[in-house]
Amino acid sequence: MLSSEELQRYARQIRLPGIGIEGQARLRAARVLIVGAGGLGSPVAMYLAAAGVGTIGLVDFDVVDASNLHRQLLHGSADIGRLKVESARDRLADINPHVQVEIIAEALRADNAMDLVRRYTLIVDASDNFATRYLVNDAGVLARVPVVYGSVERFDGQVSVFGVPGSACYRCLFREPPPPGLIPTCAEAGVFGVLPGLVGMIQATEVIKVLTGVGDPLVGRLLLVDAARMQFRSIAVRPDPACPVCGTREQTTLIDYEAFCGLRPAAPHGDAIVQLSPRALAQRLAAGDAPLIVDVREPWEYEVARVAGSQLLPLGQLVERAASLPRDRDLVLLCHHGMRSQQAAQWLRSAGYTRVANLAGGIDAWSVEVDPSVARY
User: Among all residues, which ones are annotated catalytic?
Assistant: First the structure.
């Protein structure tokens, strides 16, 4: 039974047709796992806590950074440097002390996902990378736990409900991930600060609808959000009988999702890309042993911060402009944190360039370890 305090807190929600006391009791009994305590996870967690979802699990290994604060409203300036799950726990406790918050301060991985997912009624995918999206989807389907999916990039967002019996899953829509580097991350492309709030609130709405049975959830539909034009449209998403996860069910276990998404180097161990530290690069430059530093970031990033003498060649132009790079000189690839440049180095290696290295940690590590006059962003 709901306490008198809970009845008062949720009174205006309980009055809604289709929710009532029974629907509110379902929310209190529910256990929702939110993967990611960032831009999407912030509004999802806050609105689910306010709505009275009994147990909220938060999975995130990251710490709060100043660059998060324009969109991740679970956290404030005083939380910079704290684990996001700890900051989130404190905020949610203030929103609703009746809600139990379970924090998992680690990455969701193939070796822990099934154990975690099976403990919850529903999963919210509030992640920001393809490897985690495929992992969440596959774990949800295998454990028969629904997934409320959301994603954002620049001014655009997507929301759907996957894994409900008879419905499609994420792999029915996107069987294979895009080639590494084709889709920029939010750090690389930017994100309209209010967009995660908008998309996250829609995700929270879908969670409440699925848990209470009220309304018509986004099952079999992908909602597309264009915040720049403030337009919404939905497209039908049908189950794919050939889907290896929910169709043929030939995939019965979780896989190596970093390798699946091309994030793990494909080269044999003995032929792996050399990872050059910022200090090692600085020593080579000081000694006059100057490699060609190829910066694969976007032009606006290059304007903000650069290593003197580097050559700008954005990753999206690498294939068409690779012939301009010398094959008889050492090349050091550079980006913001070392991920795009790793992809560029791997592609150059496959194209026959043998004298290729990656700047570990990117220009951000260069600023921290070598030249603090280079702006961090």
Answer: 186, 335
